[in-house]
Design goal:
heterotrimer, A mainly alpha, B alpha/beta, C mainly alpha, A: mainly alpha, 68% helix, 1% strand, B: alpha/beta, D-Maltodextrin-Binding Protein, domain 2, 2 domains, 3-stranded parallel sheet, 14 helices
Chain lengths: 387, 340, 402
């Protein structure tokens, strides 16, 4: 590569008294938008070819999708409920999307079987959950008070969902459904698995308690070795056999227990990672202070270890959030199952793509926000290392 | 950290406490239901025409209405039902464990289910049979011509077994495509993933009726390869509960036979026909024999309707003809013993 | 200071006070034992309680127990089986077919996901903006949607393909229809088996030879190029064996007969959709692992390797990859475990894996405990085997420190 002209000129004048050369702008082809395009899209023959092929495919597919999803879409059909007439959608099948399905069924997909007139209650609960996530994500709220906020919020959610007090009609759990089930199962799943996971993680590192350690290892490996689907299946089919005659646990709670046990095994490994990453000096210093095991663990070790594992913790939460969709196996109306059920009515049969896309958008918004947050947090935590 | 643990314990207690460890006393189903004030009814999570939530989240269908009728007879209020969605896998454990009091979930009455699972079928609310559907373009007129075909079938049901039995008996081979979800299996058939779609004939008929103008493309083959009497199931061991569920079904059939409908039931109270008088509890005191109010059947008919009304509401929109499900007087199999 | 000197030194004579067998709560040993006994006792009690309830319930509900059903005729049809199977076979055989189907999708899925994931991971680091953005979008979107949803979607797409009579024909005798992918396949004869064995033997011989050459290089500094030998052993040997045995070569070309294609090899749409969903989903996670692994290697490593005079390929092979692999392998283990466990979602789209077949078995026999126990044992065995293998591999490539 030849040196840029400005540099060559300066070198030529080196022997004479230093007179700064006139500032010259770099050639317009190497800066600005054109320069950026050259450097990032067309910097070699191979790169240019790839750019052109990919660009063509992207534009073609985008246009095709827009045709289907927007220009040719059917946005509404005459009638509602039993008397709906979906001929317009049927005629456009394959050419245009039938968004009328979402218009008719969005409340069922979001709230499931919840009594129609009371559906503002799960709506408020969803808002509270989102608020809870946002508040918990802000570091200035990472204090003891956060715990009280959580307890208060979950209590309010419980009151709103069940009702039976303050003039709210009672709604049994069989009627809960839609997005709120996904949120409840994943949030309670992680929140209640957390304390269990801490004990299991500590137990797995308790070298002076071999029996307890073995127990924890067996638990973790057993749960992590089998698919969630088999645990849910167990909760649904086998659990009723475990309980004495006449004692029943509600289906939703059974699924919740399975999810908690499942999440706890994964969380325990995440937390163990944090415990292992903590420098030995911290343990030794705490012992030197004469602290008991629980004082040492509660005051010195866990606060540091848990802080370190927040990003993988959020990732585990994202995983749980997606995995709750498997409860459809045991007939619980979560978001995905509600979408699946919404297309069973004869009039709406065959419009699965639209329903699945709508739910996919909801899942994506939640998971994407959380994964961005987790990635940001990780960068922030690692900043001191990169200095 | 200690706080987090405390919170965890608190939250656990909160969930357990409120979510309810429903511990029922060791008592008969009938008394337990009566004390509870609601009927726990196991239904399917989505079979069009039998039990399926509508856009407003209200359960609709023949099976669902059967549950409502039981509640109407017992409590005089058809809304006192708690519907529990069950899948093909967990329906029997749910009934065995007492999670549901009665299972009305398109379940086929078989010997093994009564003898080895400890259940009793109280009757039949739908006579079905397994059939085959093919595309007209295939040019097939009989199931005997299906050698080598690819067959779409739902897993885990008697359908799957009947299918392989039928092909074995007729020395034909087939390739199964086994899909759990009704929606997926229908799509598979429409798209031509399989040549043949086998299911209960009611399900096939309803599938065809949803296809609008395309319905003509599909042919239901004449062979019915199995008997599928579908009906409500209860646990063995509580005769009183069994009687209730069984006679609610019969009362609805009797009402259809006698022409009593939800619209005219109030007038019918004044009817001089002794059969109607006994059915509606004007005379005879039949309700008390069942441990119910004498107006039990009146409540069922008033709030849910007779069998024909249930059929019209749920099955007719599916495009399934009444056929063998008609009353015995009209050439069908539906026959209620005398209500007296 | 020698040991006896210490003993002789009066300064060391003071021993710690020996405690008698006083059972004090302050004694950590006693405390540990009490705690363990308590915890184990509690767990044992819970287990006993559950088991006794179960026994009672099984008795009351008259549910059969034991694995006797395994020997009975299953009667359930299975679409694709890697071993001979007919509905007249036993439940045990049906379950074996299920296990093999699970393994098939898991193994093929793991290999393909690794390849695709590596490509996407490298693409994310590409200097071409479009390529790196596209890879990033791919990773973000696929990671953030439930796998079940994706599987349902892919299966829907498979079914949107035309029927067998109008099947797409991208090249040669390959047919793409909603009945699956049909392709020509040679008629298998003993010569092919022999050639396959020769191929395996060739790989083993090459590996042994490479070790020999390396030992020689360490001893003498002399490098012997391995590739001519490798070519001869891996490619030449099987071909020679095949030619010697008469070079049989009959291609079975798929042809449309009656309802469907016959002849040739098939990939069913269920298997294809499951594989596609699993591979695309898992590749998104593997891509992130690969990217992190490569980025974790400091640029100085490349420069230092270059300063040693190594070629670019040797730099990557000898310096960068061994270091990157140390970062990559542990999380890869869990991805391989995930792909195996996630294959259980096959039941939703009609691929008959072990869960699907065990489900049907449970439904027919009513023996839920045995059925679920079989599912769990199968997955545990697979998971523990993968873990053990990856741990062994991980230990092999781990940094040898002091």
């Amino acid at each position: 590569m030849t040196p840029p002209p400005a540099e060559a000129a300066t070198m030529g004048q080196a022997s004479a008294a230093f007179v700064p050369a006139e500032e010259r702008r770099p050639p317009s082809l190497s800066v600005g938008p054109i320069g950026w395009i050259r450097a990032n899209l067309f910097n070699s023959w191979a790169s240019t070819a790839v750019t052109l092929v990919l660009g063509y495919l992207i534009i073609r597919w985008t246009l095709g999708f827009l045709d289907w999803a927007v220009f040719n879409a059917v946005w509404s059909v005459p009638g509602t409920g039993q008397a709906v007439n979906t001929t317009a959608c049927r005629e456009m099948k394959g050419i245009g999307a039938c968004w009328a399905l979402i218009g008719e069924k969005y409340r069922f997909i979001l709230f499931g079987l919840y009594p129609f007139d009371e559906q503002w209650r799960p709506a408020v609960c969803i808002a509270i959950f989102v608020g809870l996530y946002v508040v918990s994500a802000m570091r200035r709220f990472w204090r003891r008070e956060l715990l009280f906020i959580w307890i208060a919020a979950l209590t309010v959610i419980g009151i709103l969902m069940w009702g039976g007090v303050f003039g709210l009609p009672y709604v049994e759990q069989e009627r809960w459904g839609g997005l709120i089930i996904t949120l409840i199962l994943s949030t309670f799943g992680i929140a209640l698995a957390f304390p269990l996971a801490i004990f299991v993680a500590l137990g797995r590192r308790a070298h002076n308690l071999p029996a307890v350690k073995a127990l924890c290892v067996v638990y973790i490996e057993l749960i992590r070795g089998v698919p969630l689907i088999s645990l849910l299946f167990m909760a649904s089919v086998m659990f009723p056999l475990f309980l004495p005659e006449g004692m029943n646990i509600d289906k939703l709670l059974r699924a919740q227990i399975a999810i908690i046990l499942f999440a706890a095994a994964y969380l325990a490994e995440v937390i163990r990672g944090g415990l292992q990453a903590l420098p030995r000096g911290q343990y030794e210093a705490a012992e030197a202070l004469g602290l008991s095991y629980w004082q040492k663990t509660g005051l010195i070790i866990l606060p540091q270890a848990l802080r370190m594992v927040i990003p993988p913790l959020v990732n585990t939460f994202i995983g749980m959030f997606k995995d709750t969709s498997l409860v459809l196996i045991i007939g619980i109306f979560d978001l995905l199952n509600a979408a699946k059920t919404s297309i069973i009515e004869p009039a709406w049969q065959g419009f699965g793509t639209e329903a699945y896309l709508a739910v996919a958008a909801i899942y994506f918004v939640f998971c994407f926000a959380m994964s961005k947050y987790s990635a940001g947090l990780e960068t922030e935590f690692n900043r001191h290392r990169n200095r | 950290m200690r706080n987090a643990m405390r919170a965890g314990v608190f939250a656990a207690a909160f969930t357990l406490g409120t979510a309810g460890l429903a511990v029922a006393q060791q008592q008969s189903t009938f008394d337990a239901v009566k004390a509870r004030g609601t009927v726990n009814c196991g239904v399917s999570t989505g079979v069009a025409g039998f039990s399926n939530p509508d856009s407003q989240g209200v359960w609709r269908g023949l099976d669902v209405d059967g549950c409502r009728a039981v509640a109407a007879a017992l409590f005089g209020d058809a809304s006192k039902v708690r519907f529990v969605g069950t899948t093909t896998q967990n329906r029997f454990p749910a009934l065995q464990s007492g999670e549901v009091d009665v299972l009305v979930r398109t379940t086929t009455w078989t010997l093994a289910r009564e003898a080895s699972l400890g259940f009793l079928f109280t009757g039949v609310n739908f006579y079905d049979g397994q059939a085959f559907m093919v595309k007209r373009s295939l040019g097939v007129n009989s199931a005997k011509e299906l050698d080598g075909a690819t067959v779409c079938v739902q897993p885990g049901t008697t359908t799957e077994l009947n299918l392989s039995d039928y092909f074995r008996t007729n020395r034909m081979s087939f390739r199964p495509v086994v899909i759990e979800s009704v929606e997926e299996i229908r799509n598979a058939f429409i798209s031509g993933r399989c040549d043949v779609y086998t299911n209960d004939s009611s399900s096939l008929a309803s599938f065809r009726s949803t296809q609008g103008a395309n319905a003509e493309q599909y042919v239901l083959l004449p062979e019915i390869i199995s008997k599928e009497p579908l009906g409500p199931v209860v646990r063995k061991g509580d005769a009183k509960w069994f009687d209730l569920v069984r006679w609610v079904g019969f009362a609805q059939l009797a009402a259809e036979e006698l022409g009593v409908t939800s619209a005219n039931v109030d007038e019918m109270l004044k009817s001089q026909n002794p059969e109607i008088q006994r059915l509606l509890g004007v005379t005879g005191g039949l309700g008390e024999m069942l441990g119910l109010d004498n107006r039990w059947a009146y409540n069922v008919i008033k709030q849910v309707g007779n069998f024909e009304e249930m059929w019209e509401r749920s099955i007719t929109p599916m495009g399934v003809p009444r056929g063998i499900n008609n009353l015995w007087t009209k050439g069908g199999l539906m026959y209620a013993p005398p209500v007296r | 200071m020698p040991n006896d000197a210490i003993a002789a030194d009066p300064r060391y004579a003071r021993r710690p006070p020996t405690r008698g067998m006083t059972l004090s709560w302050r004694d950590p040993t006693v405390r540990n034992i009490v705690w363990q006994v308590l915890i184990l006792g509690a767990v044992a009690f819970v287990v006993w309680w559950l088991v006794s309830n179960t026994m009672r319930n099984l008795e009351v509900r008259r549910i059969a127990t034991g694995f006797g059903f395994l020997g009975r005729e299953a009667g359930l049809p299975i679409g694709e089986a890697m071993v001979e199977y007919s509905p007249a076979d036993t439940y045990a055989r049906a379950l074996l077919v299920g296990v093999l189907n699970t393994l098939r999708v898991a193994v093929i899925g793991a290999v393909l996901a690794t390849i695709l994931g590596t490509i996407v991971g490298i693409a994310r680091l590409s200097r071409n903006w479009l390529v790196s953005r596209l890879a990033a979008v791919y990773v973000e979107v696929l990671r953030d949607l439930p796998l079940l949803l994706q599987l349902l979607f892919w299966y829907g797409l498979m079914q949107a393909l035309p029927g067998p009579r109008q099947s797409l024909n991208p090249f040669g005798n390959v047919f793409l229809s909603n009945r699956g992918i049909k392709f020509p396949w040679i008629v298998w004869e003993p010569a092919h088996t022999a050639a396959l064995l020769a191929f395996v033997a060739g790989i083993a011989a090459t590996w042994a030879l490479a070790r020999l050459f390396r030992a020689r290089q360490f001893a003498t500094g002399q490098r012997t190029p391995i590739w001519p030998y490798a070519l001869g052993l891996i490619a030449g040997l099987p071909i020679a064996v095949w030619l010697l045995m008469g070079a049989p070569w009959t291609v079975d070309v798929p042809a449309l007969r009656g309802f469907n294609f016959s002849g040739g090899g098939t990939v069913s749409p269920e298997f294809a959709a499951l594989l596609l969903g699993l591979v695309l989903y898992t590749a998104a996670f593997i891509a992130e692992i690969v990217r992190a692994g490569i980025q974790a290697i400091h640029n100085g490593q490349w420069e230092a390797a270059g300063a040693l005079g190594l070629s670019r390929g040797d730099q990557l092979r000898l310096i960068i990859l061994p270091q990157a692999l140390r970062v990559i392998v542990p999380p890869m283990t869990s991805q391989y475990l995930n792909i195996t466990k996630n294959s259980s979602l096959a039941v939703a789209i009609g691929y008959q894996d072990i869960v699907s077949i065990a489900n049907t078995t449970i439904n027919q026999t009513g023996q839920a405990i045995e059925g679920i126990a079989i599912i769990m044992m199968v997955y545990l065995t697979i998971s523990l085997s993968i873990s053990a293998f990856m741990n062994w591999y991980n230990a092999r490539i781990a940094l040898k420190e002091r």
